[in-house]
What we know:
Radius of gyration: 26 Å
CATH architecture of the largest domain: 2-Layer Sandwich
Structural class: alpha+beta
Number of domains: 2
Oligomer: single chain
CATH topology of the largest domain: BirA Bifunctional Protein, domain 2
Helix content: 25-40%
Largest sheet: 9 strands, mixed
Strand order of the largest sheet: 1-5-6-12-11-10-7-9-8
Strand content: 15-25%
CATH class of the largest domain: Alpha Beta
CATH superfamily of the largest domain: Bira Bifunctional Protein, Domain 2
Shape: elongated
Amino acid sequence: MNRWLLxxxxxxxxxxxxxKVEALRRRLLDLYQSYGxxxxxxxxxxxxxxxxxxxxxxLNLQTFKLVDQLSGRTLGLRADMTPQVARIDAHLLNRDGVxxxxxxxxxxxxxxxxxxxxxxxVQLGAEIYGCASLDADxxxxxxxxxxxxxxGQEQVYLDLSHAGVLAGVLEGVTLTPxxxxxxxxxxxxxxxxxxVAWSQAVPTDCxxxxxxxxxxxxxxxxxxxxxxxxxxxxxxxxxxxxxLLQLEALxxxxxxxxxxxxxxxxxxxxxGYQYHTGVTFxxxxxxxxxxxxxxxxxxxxxxxxxxxxxxxxxxxxxxxLANLSKASALRPAIxxxxxxxxxxxxxxxxxxxxxxxxxxxxxxxxxxxxxxxCDRELVQQGKNWVVSPLxxxx
Length: 394
């Protein structure tokens, strides 16, 4: 086996792509900072019980595990940063008011997800803690839309759902974790025949409502109307109706904030790490079949850390977003001879301090780069070194 081969679905990021990813990361974090979001950097590895606190079983399956030689305890290599940021808010910052946090860092999955060809992603996200109202959900969605526009994605399709709808449909029905995993999968895939067969074990009204969820997707106003009246009407209990009202209010808010964004509802869309408790959303763009970003409300994660905090936010894979962005133009640079000349080195230092890229190259050497293009050069005139248009290099 060649020693330089990487594990399956793990890849190097080469200079041109790495530069594009880093430039986009800086611009997006600056955008979040303009909203008052504070940057945090959780550790790449944690004790497994802490890393998985308040999350669903699917995150456990996606987490690489190893044994800590110092403590003997099981460690996990993070597959999602959101629970870590919730822990920081709950225990390290320990604030009472609204806290806005953002992050950007590597996550690793035991298996490549359907939204990515790689098991390693650069997860970027923003979270709002301490605000239970829909104002926080509206801000999170608005910030996500600005994120995509900043990356050159002008046409965005927003798909909304609500975790409380399924909770209301299953009200009074006790299911094992394995049963919950099954129903999640059947609803997400909209496998109606299998769902009908599985739901024979639950009350008739519940079975009918579960099947109705697979039909409740499409234009927002139509879905809300069908969910309240007609063949696919959902149970008229408090949790279901409150969830539908929240979706309706959020749609009204987003229509004002983002009038050009196409919005739809899919009440069977339950993808994610199963810790969501309220409004959820997925953003789609034309060049990608799967969502480019996901988010939603997850009020119970903080409670799992011993300090209940309302929370909502979103995350995305920065590598995927950068790859879909337009290729960056080569950055202009100044070519300089690779000499130990005090005057030359002083001039190079001044140029770099002024923001110029100066690349020292040996005489006769060919310069190859996927990121820079030398269009000028430093030449000696008497005792001085001056910048001149680049001459042909032999």
